[in-house]
Design brief:
By secondary structure, the chain is of the alpha+beta class. The chain contains seven helices and 16 strands. The chain folds into two domains: 95 residues, Phosphorylase Kinase, domain 1, CATH 3.30.200; 173 residues, ATP-grasp fold, B domain (D-amino Acid Aminotransferase, Chain A, domain 1), CATH 3.30.470. A hairpin with a 2-residue loop joins strand 10 and strand 11. One of its GO terms (molecular function) is ATP binding.
Length: 296
């Protein structure tokens, strides 16, 4: 089994942010660029697990690179290169650790909102819908079952929480207060267009993208796609041949891990429980199957 990468360390580079999964580095002499490195860390319920998933960072990187290429006609993205040989020379000493799990990207100003698109009702939206058919300002059809497909994909923004806290779903009106009405319109249109193209492609591969979260940033006044895109960490991927409304679905994402954690007597706050080898292995296989299907 691949030796997992839990935390990265590159002394010649400056670590500027360590997220749930990704470590971001500034590259000396290149103020307009960042080095983004995907670790094998995995989080659930906004808690980083103590146990990594070997090879996960490489899966996330490969998928993101695939989607950046497929979707580049809709909106510009931040990718410069994923080939370490094309990185600034100071990075070359870390080639073995960077190859396959890193990207050199344009430095942008991330938007203060998460861009979530939902094609199916699941997760927090399903939980909220069971109490009221008006969810975050959206009036949803009566009588939906869990995992039902919406008539059209809906854009449902959320706030960005600090590490360890939960993002909060917000209305379009609230997002307009944060970023302005015109920018909110652009963000919504771009996000839905990205989702539709990706979802159509994935269906050809036997995968339903139930929902996903995009990150957009600003560079010289332009909105561009940043961070990871359409990975099992940021999306719900369901096998189409097993899809059946009225219940939760089997998945190629970390829902498998969430389901396991939900079966434990754990309050979803740190410290995280140690994951058994069986859960690590099965989660790894689900992620690898997703990348194999989509990128084949």
């Amino acid at each position: 089994m691949t030796t997992p990468v839990t935390y990265t360390e590159f002394p010649a580079l400056k670590l500027v942010h360590r997220g749930k999964v990704r470590d971001m580095y500034e590259v000396p002499g290149h103020d307009d660029k960042l080095l983004m490195v995907a670790s094998d860390r995995i989080s659930a319920y906004d808690v980083v697990m103590d146990t990594p998933i070997p090879g996960k960072g490489a899966v996330l990187t490969k998928l993101s690179l695939f989607w950046f290429k497929l979707l580049e006609g809709i909106v510009e993205n931040h990718l410069i290169s994923a080939d370490v040989a094309e990185y600034p020379e100071i990075c070359h000493q870390y080639k073995e650790d960077l190859q396959g799990r890193s990207m050199l990207v344009k430095k942008t100003k991330p938007l203060p909102v998460e861009c979530i698109v939902r094609g199916y009702i699941s997760g927090s939206f399903w939980s909220a819908y069971q109490k009221s058919n008006v969810v975050c300002g959206f009036e949803l059809p009566q009588g939906l079952q869990e995992s039902d497909k919406f008539p059209e994909p809906i854009f449902t923004p959320s706030t960005k929480a600090e590490l360890g806290n939960h993002d909060e779903n917000i209305s379009i009106e609230k997002m307009e207060e944060i970023v302005g009405s015109e920018k909110a319109r652009q963000i919504s249109e771009i996000s839905v267009a990205l989702y539709k193209k990706a979802a159509d492609y994935a269906r050809e591969k036997g995968i339903i993208i139930a929902d996903t979260k995009f990150e957009l940033g600003e560079l010289d006044g332009r909105l561009i796609l940043i961070d990871e895109v359409l990975t099992p960490d940021s999306s719900r991927f369901w096998p189409e041949d097993e899809y059946k409304p009225g219940r939760s679905q089997s998945s190629f994402d970390k829902q498998f891990l969430r389901d396991y954690l939900s079966s434990l007597d754990w309050d979803k706050n740190p410290p995280a429980p140690k994951l058994p080898e069986e859960i690590i292995s099965k989660t790894k296989k689900r992620y690898e199957e997703a990348v194999d299907r989509i990128c084949s």
